[in-house]
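Assess the record.
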Amino acid sequence: MTVSRTLFLSVLVLVAACQPTYTFEPDQVAQGPGGMVGNGEPITSGTFAGGDDTLPAARTVGSLPNETRPPDCDAGCVAHCNEAVLHNPVNRGLCRSLWGVGLSNRPIVHAEACRRLFVDMLGRVPGADEAEATCAGGWGATVKRLMEMDEFILVQQRRAADRFLYSNEVTSLQAIYDMDRLVEKLFRGKVPYDLFAAVVSAHPVLTRRYADPGDKAEALFNHFLGRPPFEHERADMSRLYKLWHSGYYDHPQLGLRLPDAFIRFRCLDDDGQVDEVSRGECASVLWGYNELIFTPDLRASRDPALRESTMWSGLLKPEEWAKLQTPGRILSRDMAFWERAVDDVLLQYLGYELSARVPEVREELVRWLLENDGDIRSVHYAVATSAAYLQSAEGASASGYRWTYGPLKQVDAEVWIDSMAHNTGYTLPGCDHRISQPEALLESGSVASFSVLQESRWKLDEEGELDERYSGLARTLGGCPENVVGGRFRVVSILTTATQLSFVQELCNPTLDPKVKGAAVEKLLPEGVSPSRAVDPALAEQIATHQYRLLLGRSPDATEKAEAREAGTACAQTLCKAEEFARPYCFALLSSAERVFY
């Protein structure tokens, strides 16, 4: 960082402070069709049934089903499930493949389930005190409480960024912020899922990323039907995307040339009127007759390279956006659209395709989602409070069917890092899923761009450069994706393991290296315990209990307490101090598989 660069950034800050007439605010970045929907009250109350079902006992049968074939549900099985009076749609759909055929789900482990809910819904591992306070009053109340937190919204926004590959190098920053706002409305219950899909089908986040009309149609099918279109579907749907054109828009305040979506005026004659000969090229006929033709007005400008008029999508009126959203409305009339919606949620929480193995679960969830007016929160609630999710991944089972034991998944890079920092009080910068290339904002020389970056989750260091400690670590582990070509990945390898151990080494500082800052020792020790206090077996158990609760979100079991006392006995023989015991113990817990898999 040169002195002139530092001086320039300082001048930017001073200029921003000395301009009272400057009206641009970072929250004004969002512009697009997402701002035109979901501006009223939530579509449902957000209070859903089935959160605390009384689960039935397994029916007594002559012999348990063969693990090599699906269980058969006879008349006795049907009667058993009908008598169970289950309100949760997942439990209802699961009954004829579980309790009704003589199988039992694995007994729930409360701490394990609470930790799993925190990771999946809030994106971090809780401390035991927080877990015990939050996961109280029944699972229905717990999940509702978690869904109302801002962290739940952030987790869903980050998942949407992965799904739609947000990249400010490929798509307008304005469109990305607008899409992020739309996702928040979806998970606040203000936008039904079919309306969400309609808006996305014509959103610049999708239309600007894919150049060819057929590619746009294929992306839409993959996102909302879970399959590529057949050739005749692709050819027909692509006619509704012929109007879209990829161009650039010079933002007057950000000082950036943003990649953005434009409208081309197609299927017109030389006078700018609808051409009766070519108008069929801008109409879909496979799902009824749907025509998309716009005629130019004062908002249009001539593009010499295209030899035709275009219009920036930011100038579109609400009724024009609604017309452009025809592709999404077409797909939402297909039952496969709703099946894909619930399949996505099941896969998110369970990590495997339950509905493909037990189709009754999908049927029940689709009915449930439609009964709740398309409020996708209802599906999240149903899955997160179901027996399929709230059961242990450990312990004995009467069968090897996947749905008779709980999910076991690998955490995302951000979850791993954020949990480490949150539990130990270690301060780290962040990584903003909306701005995958923050350098563009920093280098623009614009006060507005600088203020947007300052208000984001990216941080600058003392020299005015991007603080990349977080993003560098996350990207090595597959997170914080740039999304230009590829996206997030999960892998366990020598490289990722070495990277994780290096970070834990820095965080816990087990060698007590004075040059390593690490987490504050007061955080790793029970309250009132001095770092210089001599260790004995009782203190070792006390330190271990504190760290288990702090770092793993649970209390240690009898075996783990005995191991801590044994380690304390060995430590006492060398006259070690509390800090000398606590820091290596921190390293042992944070480098365990329990921090990587949940």
